[in-house]
Amino acid sequence: MRRPAILFLVFLVCLLFTTGCWSRRELNDLAIVAAIGIDRVENKVQVSVQVVDPGEVAAQRASSGRAPVTMYHAKGDTVFEAIRKMTTVTPRKLYFAHLRIFVLSEEVAREGIGKILDLFSRDHEIRTDFFMVVSKGAKAKDVLNVLTPLEKIPATKMFTSLEVSEKSWAPTVAVQLDELITDLVSEGKHAVMTGIRIQGDLQASKGRQNIEKIDAPSFLQYDGIAVFRKDKLVGWLNEDESKGYSDLTDKLKSTVIEIACPSGGRMGVELIRSKSKVKGQVKNGKPEVEVTVHTEANIADVECEIDLTKTKTIYEIEKKVEQVMKENAKLAVSKAKKLQSDVLGFGDAIHRGDPVYWKKVKKNWNKEFSQVRFKMNVDVKIRRLGTISESFVNKLKE
Fold it and tell me: Which of 114, 175, 332, 343 could form a disulfide with 244, with the two C-beta atoms 3.0–4.6 Å apart?
């Protein structure tokens, strides 16, 4: 009898430690924040939040005509103070666990983002699986104000658009908070973020007319990669440089490269798979980095007269694609050296290759980085030609 009694007592004690509802939050008491924007206004931090209206986004409920999201903003000396000030205007407590997108204005990014990010890395309620972006040519508040077609919640549009773009279009990178902070504190690699801008009529983007027309008067578009040195924005990579960045940092998943045909016209090649390896070493006291890239591709678009049935033709296409990738990589390296920002991770490669040398130069790596010798080897293989080998365009011209 003693054993069952002891087991019963142990069971009761265990129940005391399994009360999972003590910190529960009722949905009716929370304002779910989908996006947050940080601006600098009058030497204070202005925090803007995009809050979801559950009634307007419910699938089985008719719309009342209200916007699917609403926005609140407040200013403070710190981010936390501004967020708490919003309680004077919000009917519910802000809840950040479902945050999808974090927008920093270009002005804030150039001043430094380290102090701003501390709260979001420290708070136990905030998950770090949201994407970080920098607004170009507009305030972060204005970016959050844009209503978007197809997706009722603009933050969802920004999140999924960046996610899809990174997989299909190399000049964008989806950076989450953990990765960003790791790069910010790293001695051998600096941080990057994708830029976002408002295209079209800025005033029209703030009204419902932006989602009532077939051709929206304004829309959000990702544009370029922001380059940081420590926690400050120092410049931008353009489209070709951004492609080179993706090639060199093993972030390329898929993209499109256009090349010229021998007889005139253009053709598009789809890169479907790529793997990059970076090797660093020191020769005669000088750092060297060698990047080897193996890429698989498909013929996607042929707008010229060319015979794809010949092995020689395929070989020539592969070499042309390799050349374009090398040129993009050179542009990326050149811009990174000009900005004295090692976003390519060459410092990490040198550290792995020669730890003794790295210990001597790491404190002055921003300047040493500009002296790195760079070599790139690219191997491209065309795997598929599509459902036809010879374009019907050739027959039209016969």
Answer: 332
